[in-house]
Specification:
The complex is a heterodimer. Chain A is of the alpha/beta class. Chain A has 6 helices and 11 strands. Chain A has helices at about 10, 35-45, 65, 85-90, 100-115, 175-180, and strands spanning about 20-25, 50, 70-75, 95-100, 115-120, 135, 140-145, 150-160, 165, 185-195, 215. Chain B starts with a helix and ends in an 11-residue tail after the last strand. The chains are: A alpha/beta, B alpha/beta. Chain B: This is 3-oxoacid CoA-transferase subunit B.
């Protein structure tokens, strides 16, 4: 067994430098690597390019890095719910590349799977298609999109083992599996880290080969963005 | 009388068919799930990675790890499944989802839709809308016929940046049900008590009006 366990979040994020490109899992505030984001704030790493579906809210998630102006460029599909983000974008302080959500996911998966580029119908005929190669397949127009290139993928899972195998829970899965192995180094933080051999191999969602470093997060706030309930 | 949002949702719910997999956008489309016609089975897909979405949880049962694409806490129904975003959009692009219902700022007579950006004012992003409209065979738009200034949002040509081209099949507004045909918008139904003349004068695009136009039946 190849042991992927690191002692701390500091050790997990060693090697992240100013100007690097990071992939970060999560949808809204669901399934985000909370402990790693807190550590990036501590490290004061700057000029980051962040590939993440959303940009957090003002005081949680990637919003924490935005507040400290540590992000130079965001690559996302939806960035509502964040006033500081909007302010930085409109003032030109923050570069923003908005891309269709399925294209974002597939560009991660392509990087994970060694596919340099692919064709998708999403965005054909819109400003997303500008400057991109267009081809017709089966009577339908498609545009060419490229795999992402990133230095670190930072993802969050529910359970993991020391071999780096991961199991996700609910919709906290989202972008995390597609980002595993999609960057030079993949860091996984988990709510519960167990010894290899404890998890049932049949139940593993992401095999450890796609993860270089794994640690158990100190605590998880798991903030809810839109609390919607029924009356009993 | 023009419909309210619930009325629009109720009318769109009549478009659900037995054994449909359906993706609902944020806003009015989300309300459609409350008015599924009796006697049919449908499953709702949310693009953040769940099939078999159920109602909101009872107070105290919320789980931060189980949300829909609007980031609202939800529940799941028997037979539900979770999956990752790449698989989710594989389902959408692969046309395994039968019906997509989403909102729009503008729709044009050739089926173009704009709903993600107002240059200089609002840029929230397209989320999954571009993938959904480029892929789905069956797209119904839920929207208001006119904006707050009383200007038509049913247009000859969209003025805002597009989300997709030539993709919308049907539009349900507070005033009317419109079908998009190769010849343009065709008026299918009108809201209870709303005249054809009122709909025509509220629509910038030309409308094909053939024979008597029935009123929508909203229960």
């Amino acid at each position: 067994m190849i042991n992927k366990k690191v002692k701390s979040v500091e050790e997990a994020l060693q090697g992240i430098e100013n100007g690097m490109t990071l992939m970060l899992g999560g949808f809204g505030l669901c399934g985000i690597p909370e402990n790693s984001i807190a550590e990036l704030v501590q490290k004061e790493t700057r000029d980051l390019t962040c590939i993440s579906n959303n940009a957090g809210v003002d005081d949680f998630g990637l919003g924490l890095l935005l507040q400290k102006k540590q992000i130079k460029k965001m690559i996302s599909s939806y960035v509502g719910e964040n006033a500081e983000f909007e302010r930085q974008m409109l003032s030109g302080e923050l570069e923003v590349d908005l891309i269709p959500q399925g294209t974002l996911a597939e560009r991660c998966r392509a990087a994970q799977a060694g596919i340099p580029a692919f064709f998708t119908p999403a965005g054909y005929g819109t400003e997303v298609a500008e400057g991109k190669e267009v081809r017709e397949f089966n009577g339908k127009m498609h545009i060419m999109e490229h795999a992402f290139k990133a230095d670190f993928a930072i993802i969050k899972a529910w359970k993991g083992d020391t071999a780096g195998n991961l199991i996700f829970k609910g919709t906290a899965r989202n972008f995390n599996p597609a980002m595993a192995g999609a960057a030079k180094i993949t860091v996984a933080e988990v709510e519960e880290l167990v010894e290899a051999g404890t998890l049932d191999p049949n139940q593993i969602h992401i095999p450890g080969i796609l993860v270089q470093r794994i640690f158990q997060g100190e605590k998880y706030e798991k903030r809810i963005e839109q609390r919607t309930v029924r009356i009993r | 009388m023009a419909l309210d949002k619930i009325g629009i949702a109720k009318r769109i719910a009549q478009e659900l068919k037995d054994r449909y997999f359906v993706n609902l956008g944020i806003g009015i489309p989300t309300l459609v799930a409350n008015y599924i016609p009796k006697g049919i089975d449908v499953e709702f897909q949310s693009e953040n990675g769940v099939l078999g979405m159920g109602p909101f949880p009872f107070e105290g049962d919320e789980d931060a790890d189980i949300i829909n694409a609007g980031k609202q806490t939800i529940t799941t129904l028997p037979g539900a499944s979770f999956f990752d975003s790449a698989t989710s959009f594989g389902m959408i692009r692969g046309q395994h989802v039968d019906l997509t219902i989403l909102g729009a700022m503008e729709v044009s007579e050739n089926g173009d839709i704009a709903n993600w950006k107002i240059p200089g004012k609002m840029v929230k992003g397209m989320g999954g809308a571009m993938d959904l409209v480029a892929s789905a065979e069956n797209i119904i738009v839920a929207m208001m016929h006119v904006n707050k200034a009383g200007e038509s949002k049913i247009l000859k040509k969209c003025t805002l940046p597009l989300t997709g081209v030539g993709c919308v099949k049907k539009v349900v507004t507070e005033l009317a049900v419109l079908e998009i045909t190769p010849q343009g918008f065709k008026l299918l139904e009108r809201a209870p008590g709303v005249s054809v003349e009122h709909i025509v004068s509220s629509t910038e695009a030309s409308l094909i009006v053939e024979g008597d136009i029935p009123e929508m039946i909203i229960n």
